[in-house]
Amino acid sequence: MSSDADSYPMKTVPSMVTALQYQDPESRADSKTIRDEIELAHFGKRQQLKVKVFRSCVHHWIDVYLDGNMGRVVRVSHRTVRMRRVDLDVNEHHSAFAAGLNNGGASGLLYGYLLAWSGTALQVLIMAELGSMIPLSGGHYNWVAILSPPSCSKFLSYLTGWISVIAWQAAMASGAFLAGTIIQGLLVLNYPSYEFHRWHGTLLFYAIAAFGLLVNTYLVRLLPRIESSFLVVHILGFFGILVPLVYLAPHGSVKDVFATFNNGGGWSSTGLSFFVGLTTSLYSFIGIDAASHMAEEIENATTIIPHSMIASLVVNGSLGAGMLIAILFSLGDLDSALVTPTGFPFIEIFTQATFSKAGGTLMANVIRVL
After folding, report:
1. What is the pLDDT of residue 111?
2. How many CB atoms lie within 10 A of CB 177?
3. Strand locations in 27-73, DSSP E?
4. C-alpha distances in angstroms, 228 versus 63, 77, 278?
5. Got the DSSP string for 243-305?
6. pLDDT the model gives residue 281
7. Which of 45, 139, 285, 343 gives the lowest tally of CB atoms within 10 Å of its CB?
8. Which of 1, 96, 95 is nearest to 45 (CA)?
9. Do residues 290 and 63 lie in contact, with contact meaning Cβ atoms separated by under 8 Å?
10. How far apart are CA 356 and CA 289, in angstroms?
11. Which uninterrupted H or E stretch holds 3?
C-alpha cells in the first residue's frame, strides 16, 4: 500500500508536492503518473504500489467486465477495478433466486431490482465523487478519516475499516458457498441416487476458497492471461444463457412478469414480503465500491475510478435488467422451481427451458464457472 508521510489523518506535505510539481518535465515518465504522485503527496502518502496504465475508460471497463464472479470466489485479478458486472447479475441473481421468488414473486424481483439499481446509482454518484477527491486505496475509511471531525476521525475510520473487512469476508464466503452448493444441485439433478448432505457443500466451499488462494499466490503472474481469457468466457456465457431462454423456453404472459406478486413466506402483507425478498436484488449490487480500493494502482485514478464506477453501473445494470426480464418470462412452472430438490430454482428453470437435464446442466455450469 502507501506509506504515511505524516500523522493520521493525512496532511499535506508541502516539500513533497513542491518537488513533484517543479520537477523537470523532460525527466518525467508521464504527466498523469506525476499528477497521481502529487495527489497522494497531498494526503501525506508516497507511491508504493506498481501503477497499471489504462489507455481509456472503455479499455478499463473491459478489464472490469471480464472479472466476473471469479472476482468474488477466486479474486482473479489483483489489478482490475472490480465493479458489479452483468454476469454477476446473472450468477448471483440466479443463485439467490429462491428468496426473491418466494417473497415478492416475479414482479417483486423485477421492481426490487429496479429499486436496488436506482438506490445503488445514488451511492455510486457519491462514492465516485469521493474517489475523485480522495484517490486513496483505503476507500471508505480514508474518506471518513479525512472528512470527519478530528476529535472522532480515528475512531470512526477504525469502525469503517473493520466493517469493510467483514463485508469482504462475507462476500468471499457467499460466493464460494454458492459455487459449492451449485455443484451439489447439479449432482442431485443428474444423479437421483446422490444423497444431499450439508457437509459436502462445506468441503466444496473449502476447495473453492483454497483454489482462490492458490491463484492469488503461486499463480499471480498468470492473472493477466487468466482475466483475458475470461473476457471471452463472459461474453459467450452471457449469450449462452440469454439465447436459449428467449428462444427455447415457454414464455409467460406480461401479467405474470409485471403484475404477479407472491407472499410465500406467510408475512402479514405482500408489501412486507416484497421488502424481505428485496435482499435478492440488493445482493446483485454488492461491491459497487470496489473501484476505490484500487486507486493507488491505477494511472490517472481521479478520472478512471469515477468513470469506471458509473460506466459499470449503467452498462451492467442495463444488461442485468434485460437478463432478469428474460428469466422471468421463462419461469415456466413456478411451484416446481421453488420446490426443486436441487435447491436452486434457476437450475429447474434452465432444465424446463431446454427440456433436458443436459441442457440445464450445461447452462447451470456456465453460471457456476462465472
Report:
1. 95
2. 18
3. 45-46
4. 8, 10, 34
5. HHHHHHSPP--HHHHHS---BTT--SSHHHHHHHHHHHHHHTTTTTTGGGGGGGGBTTHHHHH
6. 86
7. 343
8. 1
9. no
10. 40
11. strand 3-4
Nearest to 186, CA basis, from 171, 174, 204: 204
- Residue owning grid cell 467483514: 166
Fill in the DSSP letter of residue 74: T
The grid cell for 360 is: 440445464
Give the other-Cβ count within 10 Å of 240's Cβ. 14
The answer to whether the CB of 223 falls within 8 A of the CB of 66 is: no
Q: Is the model's pTM score more than 0.90?
A: no
How many whole angstroms separate alpha carbon 56 and alpha carbon 47?
22
- CA pair distance 122, 120, nearest whole angstrom: 5
Torsion angle defined by CA atoms of residues 284, 160, 46 and 62, in that order, rounded to the nearest 10 degrees: 0
d(CA 83, CA 251): 32
Do 35 and 132 contact (CB within 8 A), yes or no? no
Rounded Cα distance between 289 and 144, Å, is 14
CB atoms within 10 A of CB 151: 8
36 neighbors 300 (Cβ within 8 angstroms): yes
CA angle in degrees (0–180, nearest 5) for 216-120-293: 30
Q: Quote the cell numbers at residue 202.
A: 462445506
In a 13 Å sphere around the CA of 211, the CA atoms on its Cβ side amount to 17
Nearest to 261 by CA among 350, 334, 349, 330: 334
Report the distance separating Cα 133 and Cα 213, nearest Å: 33
∠ at Cα 295 (290, 298), nearest 5°? Answer: 115
- pLDDT tens track for 313-357: 888 888 889 888 998 998 877 778 878 888 888 888 899 888 899
All 3 cell numbers of residue 307?
468513470
Contact between residue 128 and residue 305 where contact means Cβ atoms under 8 Å apart:
yes
